[in-house]
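so my prof wants the structure for this chain in the C-alpha cells format not the other one, which i didnt know existed until like an hour ago. anyway here's the sequence
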Amino acid sequence: MKLSRRGFVIKLFLGVLGLFFLDAFWLEQYFIEWNIFDISNGNQNKIKAIQLSDLHLKEIKKVHKSVAKRINKELPDVLLITGDSITRNSRIPLLSEFLSLLDYKIKKIAILGNKEYSGRVNLKDLRETLESHNGILLINESYVFDIKSRKINILGVDDFVFGKPDFARASQDIDYKLPTVVLNHCPAYRKTIDEISSSLDIKPTILSGHTHGGQITFFGRLLMTPYGSGEYVKGWYPGETSQMYVSKGVGTTILPIRFGARAEASILYF
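here's what i got, hopefully its the right format
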C-alpha cells in the first residue's frame, strides 16, 4: 500500500519522538560516560581518583550497581564525591547501601551539595555513615591524602547555595607546596577560590558538579542551569589560577530525564 505524505510525516514524527524518549529516559541516564583525564604532569607515582557527583539516590538501581562494579574494577586510590548524593534524611540508608557495594579499601571523601541542605539531612548521621565505609565528610576542611610516597591536599568546601562556603578557612592550615584539589559542589564559587588561591600562591584543581550539564539541552542550547552554576555547564574550564572540571553527574533532578547531557563519572590521575 502506498504511504501518503501525511502518513509518512506522522510515522516520521512518531519515530523521532520514540527515539527522543528512548534516549532521554534510558540511554543518557543509564549508560554512564566514563571520562579519563591525566593531569599528573608526568609524575611517576600517579594518584588515581574517581569523581562521582549528583547521585540523587532514590533507590539502588542497576545503573548504581554498574557504577560500583566499574569503580571496584578501576580500584582508585580515592573516590571523590562532590555533593547532592541524597536529597532527604530518610535516604541515608540508601547511601550506605551504595557505599557497601564499593571496596572498603577505597578511601571516600565527600562534600555537601544544596540537596543535602534542602532535604535537611542529619550531618552527624551522614558523617557516621561515611566513616563506617572508610569515608570522611569535609565541610570547609582540608585533608592530606598520603599514598604512594606522595601527598596532596584535598579541600572540601561547603555548599554555595544553602551552606556557608569558606575557602579561606578550608585552606588555612594546608602545606602550600603540595598539589591541591578542591571539592566544590557549585562552580559559581570558583571566583572566591581563585581570589584566595592567588593570595596564597597556589594553583588548585577544582572538581564541581551541580549543573547536570544542563540535564536537558537541544543542539547545545540550554533550557536552564540551577542557581549556583554561574557561567559554567560541563567539562574543563582552565584559568590563570585554577583549572576546574564540572561533572554532569549521575542522577537527575525535577524531571527524571536527560537529553544532550549524558550521565558521567570521571577518572583522574593527579
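also thought this was worth mentioning. Residues 5-30 form the longest helix (26 residues).
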